[in-house]
Amino acid sequence: EEDVAEYKKSLAIRASGFDVPRPLKTFEECGFSSQLVSAIKKQDYEKPTPIQCQALPIVLSGRDIIGIAKTGSGKTAAFVLPMIVHIMDQPELQKEEGPIGVICAPTRELAHQIYLEAKKFSKSHGIRVSAVYGGMSKLDQFKELKAGCEIVVATPGRLIDMLKMKALTMLRATYLVLDEADRMFDLGFEPQIRSIVGQIRPDRQTLLFSATMPRKVEKLAREILSDPIRVTVGEVG
Ligand code: ADP
Ligand code: MG
Questions:
Q1: Residue 142, Cβ neighbours under 10 Å: how many?
Q2: Of 3, 50, 9, residue with least CA distance to 29
Q3: pLDDT single digits (tens) 160-176
Q4: Is the distance from CB of 156 to CB of 104 less than 8 angstroms?
Q5: What is the ipTM of this complex?
Q6: What is the pTM of this model?
Q7: CA quadruple 61, 63, 64, 70: dihedral positive or negative?
Q8: Which atom of ligand 1 is nearest to the CA of 48?
Q9: CATH architecture of the domain with residue range 65-233
Q10: pLDDT tens digits, residue range 7-47?
Q11: Ligand 1 atom closest to Cα of 52?
Q12: What ranges do the domains of the chain cover?
């Protein structure tokens, strides 16, 4: 625990303005807790993928990020691992309600995959993950959210439904991930995304991942991220 604090302190010194933290080469450099390291090893993740090398130090430093990398490059762990650290850092976990980490994804399949990945890394920390997407009973999801969670993975439409039903509040939410932002736009979710973002406090950390960066997505990123660092890995259109 102390190691990650030291690492983050060193990042905070370097991560101001355009001063981008150096990419890392190993998971050990992150100073993750021993539980998190063993959860990573259990997945047979020997070393971070290129997007993880670049994104982990930036996100752990607290900066907003635009991550552009193609499918299969390991973006999920790039936002889930720092999210675990962020949640474990909250001084008074028990006092308020509602998720701390909010992840939006375009489809139920993707939301479910992220849910499974988040569960693998959060289980040993006692962090609860809920998934919320269409095709499941709204009442069941309402009950699950009411029981409480620290991470919610959702498709935008269903998350809006749950917010309207007051199944959850965004009072505690300080870490927002928009995954596959280009696909969410293709599916017409821009208004829902804007509504969700508008319900989350402005001093949040915001992460936007996308395989491509069409102008509409660029515009949204400029509006909702604050002083983001952009990372592009591989050839992207
Ligand atoms: P993306 O979101 O960029 O499409 P995913 O996060 O779904 O990619 O990861 C793609 C695959 O790579 C998954 O099967 C995941 O478990 C695996 N993976 C992620 N990070 C690593 C790593 N550091 N080492 C080995 N495999 C990894
Ligand atoms: Mg992905």
A1: 17
A2: 3
A3: 999 999 999 999 999 99
A4: yes
A5: 0.99
A6: 0.93
A7: negative
A8: 23
A9: 3-Layer(aba) Sandwich (3.40)
A10: 887 776 555 556 678 889 999 888 898 889 999 999 999 99
A11: 23
A12: 65-233
